[in-house]
Amino acid sequence: EDSVIKLLSSIGEKPKKAESSKEGPLKIYELIRGIEKEQFEIFYQPKINCSDRTIYGVEALSRLNHPRLGLVFPDQFIDAMERTSLINELTRYILEKSLEHWKHWHRHGYLLNLAINISPKELNNLDFPEYVLGLLKKKSIPPEFLTLEITETALDLDHADSLEVLDRLSMHGIQLSIDDFGTGHSSLERLRIFPFDELKVDKSFMLHARENDSDRAIVESSVMLAKRLGLKVVFEGIENSDLYNMSDHLGGDIIQGYYMSRPIPEQDLLKWIENWIKKNS
Ligand code: C2E
Ligand code: MG
Ligand code: MG
Ligand code: MG
């Protein structure tokens, strides 16, 4: 079943994925070269407000444009990069590039929330908050427009530094999101300790929420918990009209998924936005 989903999601956006998967994860030297030669590209996936279908923002998702393999997806490079300091360089590259993109969208009249995925490795680095805040200041972008998404399983509960880093970011208005919620251990404790603003219910629960009672139970209780804690709820994995139509009823604030849009290259984003607004007004 998982492989069917993988196959489906490879249609359209990812023509070369099968090829790169066969070869396995990329080698470190290919990743170093990718950074040096600026072969990483940012795709953006829209986040839509549930209540009125307006655009809340976009999530930046990295792809490597490999000279031989074509477009390579994060499952082929994030783990390897996290085992070295390369992930810090990727984060910095993505942050600086996407904040430039934010300014471009702003010049066209769109105020979007920009979400970036952050590796747990960044959270051990006490200089990270100042770096991010410095960038925002330099580019005159209010911190409230930046969301940092942190995968639940990646968050080390025992690490005092990560709490301090997240506290400092949060104190300055940067939005913090717990990603893939429900897939890790001690989900609840993480919510209690860290200053999150947003909870993203993992797409594995959403995908079958309609026909599978236990998946729906997990979605519903995550929503209830998030609301009690004052967090925004994001549903990812909205792949079809059924899920799209039931997400409001299930209590989602923001939805994201292939049904609205796959992640799209930066150069196509403004066009997509204009179309979406036309269709939904
Ligand atoms: P994520 O942050 O949970 O992002 C959601 C993933 O689900 C993305 O895969 C997205 O393309 C996919 N997706 C979106 N809508 C749907 C849908 O309706 N159905 C299904 N089946 N899938 C959907 P992607 O782009 O391959 O990224 C995978 C993961 O890699 C991300 O999961 C994130 O954890 C990580 N990642 C991506 N870019 C970066 C990055 O720049 N830095 C770091 N540290 N991690 C990244
Ligand atoms: Mg994410
Ligand atoms: Mg996720
Ligand atoms: Mg994920």
Automatic annotation (TrEMBL):
Instruction: List this protein's GO terms for biological process.
Output: phosphorelay signal transduction system
Taxonomic superkingdom: Bacteria
Q: Where is the EAL domain?
A: 24-277
Give one GO molecular function term.
cyclic-guanylate-specific phosphodiesterase activity
Query: Keywords assigned by UniProt?
Result: Phosphoprotein
Protein name per the record:
Transcriptional regulator
Q: Which species is this record about?
A: Litoribrevibacter albus
The shown range, given as first to last of full length, is 122 to 402 of 402
